[in-house]
Amino acid sequence: EELNRIRTDSWLYQLAETVGMPYHFNTSGTEKWEGGPSKDSVYIASLYFTMTSLTSIGFGNIAPTTDGEKIFAVAMMMIGSLLYATIFGNVTTIFQQMYANSNRYHEMLNCV
């Protein structure tokens, strides 16, 4: 009896309801769960969740719902992460060069 009840609070159930492909329990034949979103939709939703968690953007109350919107959001997160890493690396290089020039100047003064 417990196997043919679905948890309505699971993310997979919510995804199935959002995309309009709900799960149903086949009682007449296989007695297994059937329906639900495609494997592509499940994979894209999982990738979106992982990227929002890793990039620390987090989930807000405005979130993409279609696969295209999720793919776009993941692409923007990757681009944003790369830009952040590039900017942070360049700023670090600037500080490193400033300290190297300052050290060279002080060494010259000490030699005089």
The assembly state of the depicted protein chains is single chain
Sum up the overall morphology in one term.
rod-shaped
What portion of residues is helical? 55-70%
Structural class: mainly alpha
Layout of helices and strands:
Layout: H1 11-18, E1 23-25, E2 33-35, H2 39-54, H3 67-111
Helix pairs in contact: 2-3
What report would you give on this structure?
It is rod-shaped, with a radius of gyration of 26 Å. The mean pLDDT is 80. The protein has a two-stranded antiparallel ribbon. Helix 2 packs parallel to helix 3. The chain is mainly alpha-helical. It has helices at 11-18, 39-54, 67-111, and strands spanning 23-25, 33-35.
What's this, in brief?
The chain is 62% helix and 5% strand. It is mainly alpha-helical.
Q: Which labels suit this protein?
A:
112 residues, mainly alpha, two-stranded antiparallel sheet, 3 helices
